[in-house]
Amino acid sequence: MAAKKKEEGEMRVKKIENGVVIDHVNASKAPAVLKLLGIDSTFPGTVSILMNIPSAKFGLKDIIKIEGKSMAENEINRIALVSPHATVNIVKDYKVVKKHAVKLPEKLEGVIRCPNAICISNREGVPRLRVEQQSPLKVRCEYCERVFTEEQLA
Ligand code: CTP
Ligand code: ZN
Description:
By secondary structure, the protein is an alpha+beta fold. It is built from four helices and nine strands. The protein is globular.
């Protein structure tokens, strides 16, 4: 009975050939993750989004599968801003060849822009924000010194 249930669960979205699978995303945070990765209506590739699905570890979770995409380290760590327990699986020829646990660095250097529109870091240099608190998230811009919450960053 349990085996049958798992089989049905796995049929929601099939395995991908090449690309990335972002797993263990906090429930209902998939749209925020896509936004942080800059994936919007202009993205040409196939993206599968699963929201609020049962997970053995965390209750409900989201999963995002992006076909044909590779991911740089700073993109991977950006996910930690909205989903600190996410796992980024790199898939090649249907196999998971690398599994990254996302990690929120103390300092976000060139990872996100400062939400303050008039901040100097948006015009020159590399934006630098310091993580002052992980949960709930609080980051401070090193240029304008303003403090932002998760909602303000997403
Ligand atoms: N996956 C996929 N396509 C592939 C390989 C894997 O869509 N070709 C998906 C799996 O369905 C799963 C995730 O990528 O959602 C991670 O795969 P895997 O490491 O095989 O699963 P688990 O061992 O369960 O992962 P974890 O231990 O991180 O929970
Ligand atoms: Zn700033």
